[in-house]
Amino acid sequence: MPEDALRRSIAEAGFVFRARIQDRGVGEAPATPAEAGEVVATRIEEVLRSTPVLRGLAGQEAFVVTRDASALRRSHRPILFAEVVSLGQQLLVREIGHVETSDETSDQVAGAIREEDERPLRERVAAAELIVVGEVVESRILERPVPPPSEHYPDWGIARVAASAVLKGRREPRGKVEVLFAASLDRMWFHSPKLHPDARGILLLFRIDENERPPGKMPRNGWQALDPLDLQPVDRREEIERLIRGGR
After folding, report:
1. By C-alpha distance, which of 120, 129, 72 is closest to 96?
2. What count of Cα atoms within 13 Å lies in the side-chain half-sphere of residue 64?
3. Where are the domains of the chain?
């Protein structure tokens, strides 16, 4: 499979696993519409990429809906890129693509999975205007109106961050940086960085949108960190610096 096709398959698939083809009758498989394709029984040998719910399925059976059953049955130990159709007593997945297991394809798939898993952070790093290593020395809530003006009001806060290093952007912030954050524990903001005193890490910072009036006395040219990816642990510094350089 060409490298670009491999990447597309992994990006589209929610479930990637190494399998062994099973000899079972189609009548034992879950019922599927004829136009969806044929069903091939497999045993999951290793889960390579999945949601947390699917990670423990190694050793179990998976029925694969495919439009090229003969090609899949000719495979000895395929690596399957699939999406889950149903999860219950019988696992039914739809094939997006597959490759035969070899040292080369295993390395290619592992590399492509690593790249795909890294993509959200890589894109966030590329978009950030300023990235610093720092520690919150003080913070305060700018305003907490009662009742809140909206159902998911973020409880805006402002943090003063002591920046010990600037990884990306202008060098002047080496010192104190003011950062807008969402202090609310509402489900919409629960995973947003909570920049309370002693919080420490790598901050991916963005200018406050000029079209939105910052709350309280927050300056228009201030910074914000609102996305869950905007605060990374210090031990990821080498990885962040690699992404800043454009490395993969």
Report:
1. 72
2. 33
3. 3-117, 128-244
